[in-house]
Structure prediction request, 515 residues.
Amino acid sequence: MKLQAIVGGHRRSVMLRLHKSIFTALFVIAATTSGVEISGARSGTDSSSLYRNLPFPMARVQTPSIPNRSVNITEFGAISGGAVSNTKMIAAAIDAVVKKGGGTVIIPEGLWLTGPIVLKSKVNLHAEKGGLVLFTNDYDEYPLVKTWFEGEFMWRATSPICAEKAEDVAITGEGTFDGNGEYWRPANKYSMPEARWKELTAKGGRLSENGTRWFPTEGALKGSRMTAKRGSLTEPEAQEIKVFLRPVMVALVSCKRVLIDGPIFQNPPAWTLHPLMSEDITIANVKVLNDEWAANADALDLESCRNVVIHDCLFHAGDDAITMKSGRDEEGRKRGIPTENVIVSNCVVYSGHGGFVVGSEMSGGVRRIVVTHCTFIGTDNGLRFKSTRGRGGVVEDIHISDINMINIRQDAILFDLYYMIRDKRGIAAPSVNEGTPQFRNIHMKNIVCEGAKRAVLLQGLPEMTLKNISLENVTIEAETGLFCTDAESIRMKNVHIKAPGQGSADIAEETRNCR
Prediction:
């Protein structure tokens, strides 16, 4: 389906590419639970069952308290159709409810072009069914800000939806938010269909020297050559390459009591949903629909957050899908805020580099995570744990159960502590220091995977082995079986691996150390 819109006097097209399987899953995953009302919008579906029989104590996540009043953006002059930017009108609606003590800002049915939306305390941004919010491709509407991306503090363009130090914040409704990401993201020729490549290059932009990588502007191309300096750019340097410094779509920084319930998010400039250093977060009934070739188009990156529930969501990601992070290297260790007390349940992932992922930026630690009743279909990896020397941080007390996977392109279960290092075994082991990552006490049970390239990879470091990893009631059919090195106290019970050409491995119960 192609949706035509007029932006800044030029016709452009928004491609809404939804696989047939996604449409089917949207009906399957539709919410059936009830919640209290915030000015006509749910304040969160019933998640009480998620707290039963947890392996660790966890306080109930607090949901936002927002007054039961509302305004419609049309009351402030908003015009649908895509010809007029409604940035000022939406901001005026938010300011109006804030002055009254908070409430709901309603985005009705229609196509609404806008620049960044800045959320504030006691505000629920509610996009009604049939409402499509399209973020403008006018780069001037996205001022530079200093913020965190991939665990580093740096200049970035302002996020399409953002909030900082806000309390009682919600994004609800059955509408759609489109980040217009094709005007920000680079693209690789061989990662997408030829027709899509021709469509992109017809927009203009710039190609890399070998002609296989497309950039939307000259500044974006220049920025790609300055990645080693990205954390130390001056503001003038950053301004020159602003399109390269593409923002995450939804940035919620240092917020408390956050609810995201119902909308579709698609086509982000970079990551899609990025709660950062926030607490008491509920993400429910959300769909993230990104092209699988979209660069860095993670679905959800939970970074240095605590007390979180994520349930009944559908993710189609261009990169990792459900991801736990906590900062990168020395900056992340200095921040020292782990991601902790998280429940993930009843989610479906259709594409992405990993279904459930920890890392690689986990320098502040990740702990006390429960993942249960999830389905991964066609992802590169299923359960993906990744880090590398220099990160530091401790990942521990992760409990994963009742996971079903099919058509996994690489590893069904992956632990890789040599992430992004090509010569993995050719480097002498250094001494243990603050930059040595640690993964321990991670338990997986009731896992089924039909089709993978490799069943299990357990690859620790010789100076810091994986410790106390358990697999119970696991059945995997893959091209190759289990590879284990630099890991100890690996406990397996009722594990069945079917690997044609290697024979089947049926492990009733054993504990092994791998060196």
Observations:
- The chain has a mean pLDDT of 90.
- The radius of gyration is 23 Å.
